[in-house]
Amino acid sequence: MFGIQHIKFDSMTYVLHFKSGSIKKEGRGLSFFYFAPNSSIVAIPMGSNDLPFIFSESTNDYQQVNIQGQISYKISKPKELADVLDFTVTDSGAYKKNDIEKLNQRIINEAQTATSAYIHSIKLKDAIRSAKAIENKILEGLQSSAAIGMLGIEILGANILGISATPEMARALETETREKLQQEADQAIYERRNFAVEQERIIKETELNTEIAVEEKQKQIAEKKMESRVQQADNERKLREMQLEADISVENQRKQFIEQKTANDKKEAETQGYVLETTLKPYKEMDWKILTALGNNSDPRFSIALAFRELAENADKVGNLNISPDLLSSLLSEKPERRK
Fold first, then answer.
1. What range(s) does the Band domain occupy (predicted)?
2. CB neighbours of 132 closer than 8 A, spacing ≥ 6?
3. Residues 11 and 70 in one domain
4. Which of 80, 236, 274, 335 is buried most, with the most CB atoms less than 10 Å from its CB?
């Protein structure tokens, strides 16, 4: 009525009430009456906003990639933003212009500018796997951008939701990756089989080494037995040698004993011979007849034997001598009488 209007804003909206070219009221969540013909109201949303984006860039190997993500920001200096963009509202609270889209586009442009130099320096495969690096590049670019600073906004974060190649290149990469995975699978099968063969070889080598070790042990046992037999034979030989040496020593001692005994017997015999010779020396030159008489043998046969010897010695002097058998038999059969 008469140009006086009432308007109300929520707490998340920063309001600037311009009257005759100067700020009459400002603040968040205002509610007031104003005279419409000479008033202009600017309403700037203060809440955080999530800005989705998607843009294309070319990699170092001249391949196109699509980068899709989201930027979170909030308006921290609404008066500076109001100096750059038009957020004027009508009496009903609707924006006269859609400058929020300009704001979003400027942010996206800055994000793409911060990303393009990095994307151009890497290859397609690296670009597809560099989401975290692109996020960091966007954040650094936006936070250091003078244009973003003039807009009075604060960048809260950036997220890369996807990096994709063109459909044709994606299929090519899928084919390449599939072939590579197939090769890796074949390599894994080969390595598994090779490992199985290697394990079988190791098992056989282990068995052979075990057999060799057993044979070596048996050989060592045989050698030990042989050494024991050799040692036993050597000990027996030594015992026999010791026995022979003992026997030789005994025989030598017996020889020495016999030689000594022979020498002693010889000396004894020589002594006895000397004694006998000395004893018989006086009788050596005596007539045997005297020696016979000294013997004093009363046996008549002895006397007859002496008589016959005497006759034999004087045979040349005897003319005839008759000895009858009866006489000889009677002489020989007579026994000497015992002496009383």
1. 19-193
2. 160
3. no
4. 80
pLDDT tens-place string over residues 97-140: 888 899 999 999 999 999 998 999 999 888 888 899 999 999 99
- Residues 42, 81 contacting (CB under 8 angstroms): no
Strand-pair partners of 153: 75
In a domain, 39, yes or no: yes
Angle at 276 between CA 274 and CA 279, to 5 degrees: 105
Count of domains in the chain? Answer: 2
Backbone angles phi, psi at 61, to 5 degrees: -100, 25
Tokens of 243: 């026995």
Which tens digits make up the pLDDT trace of 15-40? 999 988 888 889 998 988 888 888 88
142: its two tokens: 């936006």
Examine the domain organization and report whether 135 and 55 are in the same domain.
yes
pLDDT tens digits, 91-107: 888 888 888 899 999 99
Q: Name the domain boundary from 165, 183, 202.
A: 165
Under DSSP, is residue 171 helix (H, G, I), strand (E, B) or coil?
A: helix
- At 179, list the tokens: 């072939």
Residues 117, 247: Cα–Cα separation, whole Å? 115
Environment class of 25 (CB within 10 Å of its CB; exposed 0-12, middle 13-18, buried 19+): middle
Least Cα distance to 332 among 307, 296, 311, 312 occurs for 307
pLDDT tens-digit readout, 212-235 = 999 999 999 999 999 999 999 989
| Residue ending a domain, choose from 165, 191, 207 | 165
User: What b-and-e string marks burial along 210-248, b requiring 16 or more CB atoms within 10 Å of the CB?
Assistant: eeeeeeeeeeeeeeeeeeeeeeeeeeeeeeeeeeeeeee
- Whether 84 contacts 185, CB under 8 Å: no
Tokens 């034999």, residue? 312
What residues make up the domain containing 116?
47-77+97-165
Q: Give Cα 147 distance to the centre of its chain.
A: 66
